[in-house]
Amino acid sequence: MPRPGAVPAAAGPQRGNHFDQYEEGHLEIEQASLDKPIESDNIGHRLLQKHGWKLGQGLGKSLQGRTDPIPIVVKYDVMGMGRMEMELDYAEDATERRRVLEVEKEDTEELRQKYKDYVDKEKAIAKALEDLRANFYCELCDKQYQKHQEFDNHINSYDHAHKQRLKDLKQREFARNVSSRSRKDERKQEKALRRLHELAEQRRQPEW
């Protein structure tokens, strides 16, 4: 029997120590899950809603927080924390550097080939222009013409004919000088030979 003055206990679970209620089985334990969000009657859920938060929004001044729970990753290797990410980043950087070097090598070889082709083309054009200009160049007058008609008019001009005659006269004069010098040399040689012959004859004559 209850003692006098005691307040009878209310039927069903009482608010107070939740741990005792969990122990007695009156409250169902809420299981954490990455696939299922917390219920709307959760105390944390209600507190967030009271401060203006809505389901599906992120936390923060600009709602920039993540909306999904942080996943649990079980670590089976013996590396330190963050070592695997560092190795992956290093491998990715090395692969990117190799790719860049290969691209630069291909670009360099391609540029070299393009430059070589350009130089060869420029040389061919310069050679063709030189050959073309040689056909319309007057070496006697040292004049270059771009058109055949201009070159033909110059060849038939008085100025060109006068220079050609002057050149021919100089060549003939040079030939005469060479011929005259040759005859003088021949006469000197003949005179020297006669002198030697006379000396030889004098030596053959006996002295009396």
Automatic annotation (TrEMBL):
User: In what residue span(s) does the C2H2-type domain sit?
Assistant: 136-165
**Entries under InterPro entries matching the protein:** G_patch_dom, ZnF-G_patch_domain, Znf_C2H2_jaz, Znf_C2H2_sf, Znf_C2H2_type
Q: Which SUPFAM superfamilies match?
A: beta-beta-alpha zinc fingers
Q: Which SMART domains match?
A: G_patch
Q: Which UniProt keywords apply?
A: Coiled coil, Metal-binding, Zinc, Zinc-finger
**Compositional bias (Basic and acidic residues) at which positions?**
182-208
Query: The G-patch domain covers which part of the protein?
Result: 40-86
Which GO cellular component terms are attached? nucleus
Going by the entry's taxonomy, the superkingdom of the source organism is recorded as Eukaryota
- Annotated region described as Disordered, given as residue ranges: 175-208
Pfam families assigned to the protein according to its UniProt record, in alphabetical order: G-patch, zf-C2H2_jaz
| Coiled-coil residue windows | 91-121
Question: From the Swiss-Prot or TrEMBL record, what is one GO molecular function term?
Answer: zinc ion binding
- The name this protein carries in UniProt is G patch domain-containing protein 8
Q: Which organism is it from?
A: Patagioenas fasciata monilis
